[in-house]
Amino acid sequence: MRLANVDGRAVLLTTDAAGIDVEQASEGKFGPDPASIYENWDAFRAWADRAPAGPEVAFTRSRLGPPSPAPRQIVAIGLNYHAHAAESGFESPDRLPPTFTKFRSALTGPDAEVVIPAGGTVDWEVELVAVIGRTATGVSPDDAWGHVAGVTIGQDISERVSQLAGPAPQFSLGKSFPNFAPTGPWLVTPDALPDRDDVGLGCAVDGETVQDGRTRDLIFPVARLVAELSRTITLYPGDIVFTGTPSGVGLGRTPQRFLQPGEELVSWIEGIGEIRQRFVADSAGITGEEA
Ligand code: ZN
């Protein structure tokens, strides 16, 4: 099953450009707000699995918003692939990897334009994003997938100067400029993937592939990650978890490479689709020193 956010309305997809409006097809039982769907996920799944009928609505990609538009929390994970930990100059974690947030003001849909902060170095990190469908606290790894509504594509866009400045890294701020958390194009339920624990993911800058990995290489796979996080925090329906990026980020290259105005970043995950960001210069042109 695939679920999209079209102009703020939940739509069950029948193709990549059309679907059934959930609120209309369920006669008001579910939706229209996609955020409300996750609060009632089990009942929604049971209804959606009965192949509801309804008038088809067609849409263009520019109308797509984030599949989970109002998460209470956005959790993000660093160093969750061995090769990425190595290129970043760190040992691989044996306990839970570095955990931070991307603030909600950075959340956007699949096809955003992103302003490069003046004086900043902006990098790419394609990631599988899990959307929580059932409150998770102290869940076991065996039960963890049952608390995940589905997955989508995320880009953990990262401004490396502010991320790494100061006495301790500023992961949360450096990764939370406007539109630095694009997600989409839609939610895919785990059963609709070829293998929920092994999908290919990657991204390209102006057509040149820069990341190309597989989620089977996650040090903490989705189920273990959700279980471990839920030992400390409660994960709520609609919360989203950026699960970490494979190797190939610009920071880890020789020479280093960062996104330039005019460049387009395309990110894909097997079985889900792709998202696209175009990068533009900060027209205000005010740097931190001048402000
Ligand atoms: Zn990341």
Description:
By secondary structure, the chain is an alpha+beta fold. The protein has 2 domains: 2-63, no CATH class; 74-290, Fumarylacetoacetase-like, C-terminal domain (Fumarylacetoacetate hydrolase, domain 2, Alpha-Beta Complex), CATH 3.90.850. The chain is 15% helix and 32% strand. The chain is built from 8 helices and 19 strands. The strands form 3 sheets. Strands 1, 2, 3, 4, 5, 6, 7, 8, 11, 12, 14 and 17 form a 12-stranded mixed β-sheet that branches. Strands 9-19-18-15-16 form a 5-stranded mixed β-sheet, with no helix packed on it. Strand 1 (2-6) and strand 2 (9-15) form a beta hairpin. The N and C termini lie far apart (48 Å). The relative contact order is 0.20. The mean pLDDT is 95. The structure holds zinc ion.
Shape: globular
CATH-level-4 superfamily name of the largest domain = Fumarylacetoacetase-like, C-terminal domain
Number of separate helices = 8
CATH architecture label of the largest domain: Alpha-Beta Complex
Query: H/E order of the elements?
Result: EEEHHHEEEHEEEEEHEEHHEEEHEEE
Q: What are the low-pLDDT stretches, counting only 5+ consecutive residues below 50?
A: none
The helicity comes to 10-25%
Oligomer: single chain
Q: Describe the largest sheet.
A: 12 strands, mixed
Number of domains: 2
